[in-house]
Amino acid sequence: xxxxxxxxxxxxxxxxxxTGGGGPDDGPITLRFQSLAWQEESVEANKELVREWNASxxxxxxxxxxxxxxxxxxxxLTSFEGGEAPDVIHDASDDxxxxxxxxxxxxxxxxxxERLRSDIPQRSWExxxxxxxxxxxxxxxxxxxxxxxxxxxxxxxxxxPTPERPWSWAEFREITGRLSGDGRYGVAWPLKxxxxxxxxxxxxxxxxxxxxxxxxxxxVRFEAGDEVVPRTIHDQVGVDGSAPGSLLxxxxxxxxxxxxxxxxxMVPLGFSYRQQIVQQAPKGFDWQVxxxxxxxxGLTQGVSPQxxxxxxxxxxxxxxAAFIDFLLRPPNMVRLALGxxxxxxxxxxxxxxxxxxxxxxxxxxxxxxxxxxxxxxQSVRGYPEWKDKVAxxxxxxxxxxxxxxxELRERLEEDGNLVLARYQR
Length: 425
Fold this sequence. Notes:
By secondary structure, this protein is of the alpha/beta class. It is 43% helix and 16% strand. It has helices at 2-19, 40-56, 72-81, 97-101, 114-119, 122-125, 150-156, 169-178, 194-202, 224-238, 256-260, 274-280, 317-327, 330-340, 347-350, 362-368, 383-400, 405-421; strands at residues 29-35, 60-66, 88-92, 129-130, 133-134, 137-141, 144-149, 185-187, 210-212, 218-220, 264-270, 287-291, 301-303, 306-310, 343-344, 372-374. The strands form 5 sheets. It has a 6-stranded mixed sheet with strand order 2-1-3-14-6-15. Strand 4 (129-130) and strand 5 (133-134) form a beta hairpin.
């Protein structure tokens, strides 16, 4: 009997060695890192950092996996449910709530080093905090700004806004009216995704839209502060004629040919669009970045930073967290920000001189960083469904003039609360 037991134990040890039990002879750990970088500079910056990690960490290799912003939510959901999710996941904070509450993402609270936790401001951490856990590291962000035809504005004699003295929403509407006429428009609103643009800019006017009670239940209330931005856009299109209605369903890139051709004085865009403008603007075209209009709450606007998360099913969470820490060391965070033409969340990276130059108006963006706050829908369960089925069609119809402000309010509140209620039972 003793011989048989010894033989069985020996066989078990042999089988464990053959199947890879995590010992020193099993070879290096491999982490799959799915990146959503898409611009050439950004893709190269990410791949270069992966190469640097692999060269200095022979026991933990990282495999770069290219993802796409266009399909990331459905792709991740499929990979989570199929048990094939990447270890390190690049996403945006407003896409994390359902994944976090659904148990698909690891709570990073005890995995991240103090250096990283203290370097990123609390307001940024709030964008990836759901319940009592932190489910992503916010690392890149961008304010929405006005990209303006500098020559046109200078010749018109209008006051040029600065972060210290921005336009109010009323002044912005008045100026776009003055700049319009003869087939030209003061502003072009590319609102293919009208919800995030409207809600994030509405924070400056005191808009909140989503209200959470003491029990944690969220309800939609469309109040006075929530009306300012959508009413401004609606009236620029349908009353003043200072914005073309034909571009309301367009993406930001779709406005650039008309902008370069002198049809629009300004286009509200994400800060990162400067790269496309530098690459595509005709020779001699003079442009500048202006802060978005301000309301009673100043230049405050909502933002959904890009994030790095770890899959709950990853067997190598500690190693994945170490890789994230490497990617987001201050010099590396600067490289990622420059590659994406965005702003880093980290305080030390944000202070880098490369992000405070007048060239390409980097300094305007960094001056706005302190005014960025979590997007209103950040932690709302059911937000993707509310956005797709209720808010997007409602805002599109309001901006096109098909419905009035009252019906917009009714649909956002009544239809919207029915959707959100299903996620809060």
